[in-house]
Amino acid sequence: MGQGIAKSRFLRRWVGVSLLVLFSGVPCRADEVLTVSRATEVVKSDFESFYTGRENLVRLGIGVAGAGIIANTSIDRYLRDRYQEDLRSGDTDRVSKVFKVFGAAYVAAPVYLGAYGAGRMLRNPTMEEWAQKSARATVLGVPAVLGLMVALGADRPTDGGESHWKPFRGEHGASGHAFIGGVPFITGAMMAENVYVKAALYGASTLTALSRINDDKHYFSQAALGWYLAYLSSSVVDQGKDLREGRLHFAVSPVPNGWMVTVRKIF
Q: Mean of the pLDDT values across residues 172-179?
């Protein structure tokens, strides 16, 4: 339980830093006041849509119900045993070690901050948009993930722990790694226009969840629920308000015999 408390404290601190840096803008000038106000409005809208919006609550309920069916029957244990006995190998362990890293908050935070800063410096609206949306989706879903981890109260499969829900008697009802590792890829997939790129990114978004199953740290229902929360959070942000609304964006691109400057404004 102590590890879970430490994890939740770290996530809360990361959420605060992300909000301050990503949503308020790095420079502190008078013309940034509007940006801060706009960011507050956008984040508030995200939370209202996710936690009070009927459509999202129905989707969330369906996801939790589906996870409950798998967790509270023999399905989770069967899937776990089949994977560990028939599929896990040294090769899957090596791949898992790579993709587990994407689910660590201490990795996600600097990646988003770095991408956001690079996007601003390079005047690359796509990079900036991806960083902001990924951070917003993570901030948005963290309360739900932490709440369900404890409220559902399941154990890890390691050492024979049960997948059955025991409300408030455990802290593994949903996978935090699967959530954090899924958000950046799902966000990228929702932004992508090419169908093959979109499919590849959606596929990549499941790899952190699969790494937790491989390492025997989570049952299938727990990993799947973490990924599903990442999908719901990213969907709400993707369909919500744009932090870049009303701002001019400049991009410089190389072309034959020179450079091309494009200007874009989002209304």
A: 96
**Which amino acid would we find at residue 81?**
D
Around Cβ 36, how many Cβ atoms within 10 Å?
A: 14
* CA dihedral sign, ordered 13, 4, 44, 113: positive
- 249 within 8 A of 125, measured Cβ to Cβ: yes
Q: Residue 5 has which token pair?
A: 């408390």
pTM of the model: 0.80
Angle 214-212-140 (CA atoms, 0-180°, nearest 5)?
A: 155
Give residue for tokens 């369909």.
239
Angle 207-214/220-239 helices, nearest 10 degrees?
160
Report the DSSP beta bridge partners of residue 252: 261
Residue 182, token pair as written in the block? 């899924």
Q: What share of the chain is helix, strand, coil (3-state, %, to 5)?
A: 70, 5, 20
pLDDT over 90, % of the chain: 67
Query: How far apart, in whole angstroms, are the C-alpha atoms of residue 1 and residue 77?
Result: 23
Dihedral angle, C-alpha 59, 64, 66, 72, nearest 10 °: -170
Backbone dihedral angles phi then psi of residue 250, each to the nearest 5 degrees:
-110, 140
CA 259 to chain centre: 36
Q: What are 125's two structure tokens?
A: 């609206």
Q: Which of 140, 108, 114 is nearest to 237 (CA)?
A: 140
Token pair 């590890």 is found at 3
**Sequence ranges of the domains in the chain:** 2-265
On whether the CB atoms of residues 179 and 208 are closer than 8 A, the answer is no
DSSP-derived 3-state class of residue 95: helix
